[in-house]
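Progress report, Aim 2. The chain analyzed during this reporting quarter is listed below.
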Amino acid sequence: MSKFRFEVGSTVMCNLGPRGWKLGKVIALKYREPHWPADTFAPYQVSLEDDHMLIYVPEDDDRYCRETTEEDLRIARRMDALAALPQELELGLSTLEVVDIEAHLSDSEDLNAPPHYLSYRSGRCYCCGCNPRDWSNVELYSEHYRCSTRHQLKVTRHEVDLGIMRVGDSIEISADECYSSKNGFSQCPTLVRLPPGVRFSDDGTLSGEIQFDPYRASSYQVHFVAVSTADWSDHQVGLVRLEISFLVEDNEPPNDFDVEGFMQEQELARLTAHRILGELCDAWEMWEREELGNRSTIDKMRAGLDRLRTLLERFPRLDGGRWWAHLGGFHMNIHKLLENALFECELYLGHALTFGDVEVRRMAEQNLEGCYQKRLLEAARFMWVEGIELMRRGEWAVAAEKFRLAASKKEGWGWAVNYGDIWISESVARLIYGASIDVEDEAEEWVDEAARLLEMGMERATESGIFTAQGHPWGSEVRDALIEYQSMQGRHVELTEWLEDLKQRTDYWCAQVLGGAEPFPPQVRARRENASELVRRLKALSI
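Predicted structure tokens for the chain:
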């Protein structure tokens, strides 16, 4: 090979198989080892960034070595989305694109609003929760959610280095007067990173006696992180990220600890987890081959996910959190089949982020990229439904604006809203409102926009390939109504009867949408489990 994709000094991502993808730097081209046959070489030798191990890349192919992305660099070079990046990365990486013009956070509590974990469905606040005090692990820590960045909130960072500690040492750190916030640190602390015997309080206090940790080596580093959003609206404070670091040494098992029994128990749990994972993969592959229907696939996968969760509740620190990442990731599969499970995806993937393992974090983030996109799709769908209800109340202009915002979330798509329905709905609202106002020029603008949106919606419906030559049934009716309106405009005919008929037919189609009738998406199924209870159970594992 005479030409390589990367040069010496290039930063690349290398596939280490079971160890996952690792960040490294190319240090040599055409690498070869003395015992290799003549004319045999590897395209690159790479020094890994985390441990400086030297490896070689067998082929100049994306399967083994690929270009780094912004996400790769952020994950590899900081622990979470609130940690500081090295200055050269801050200068070199692109800023987060924000497009939502209705973003506004609030501390107030709307009694008529959905539960806070569903507030993203309103479409406000870039699809982050509307109150930072309710933000979850993914909203605070994920590189794909980055809610603090989207809202340009200040982040105040406090770092405490305790140096070297030993098993048996006592820790007693009172809330530092220098902390910018004095409470709120129990919102999303990474408790799983603390040694056994050490407790953390809402005011930032760390206390207890370090005990032996069978999951860690004889010497290990702790980087504990907690965040307070109590003062998010104070521009001098914002979010407060507290990081407490220390090195634990002498982590040796006491005489009465059964090391062999512990290892056997962990291995049995690991084998069980692998078996469940295989069953989940089998069920999904059967669905892809059309050997299982949606409902049967959901039921089989739900049963496997329940067993995996039960196993992890018994062994919550198994393999450094990677099984929590699998648990969250496979909930995404059933969400794709319209199971109301995005909350579980985020809950368990967010929990995986708290372990601090770079590869586990990468596993979680690979799924969280899709999760955030699903938030946008869910928001589009629920805003669409809200617009439908506004039309039933005769609030045509308000409904049109709601549809416009819904379509802007994902270019006219929504969660299971696939056939241009949002654009068709907005075209109806605009046509009715335009035909109802007396100002001729303004009316013409509304109707022209209705025609443009209808064309987009009908084109999307045609591309789906599921309709007859007439296209989307609601869209076809609107098209006929629009043609009739345009012909009446030329003859200056009274519109009252036409307008009343269009409103009645719109009410009919709105009822079809709300009822989940074909060709509209079915109604969202009720949540299978209480979200607050799932959170409580997960938090109990870290106490």
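The two ends are 57 Å apart (CA to CA). The CA atoms of residues 117 and 469 lie 42 Å apart. These observations will guide the mutagenesis work planned for the next reporting period.
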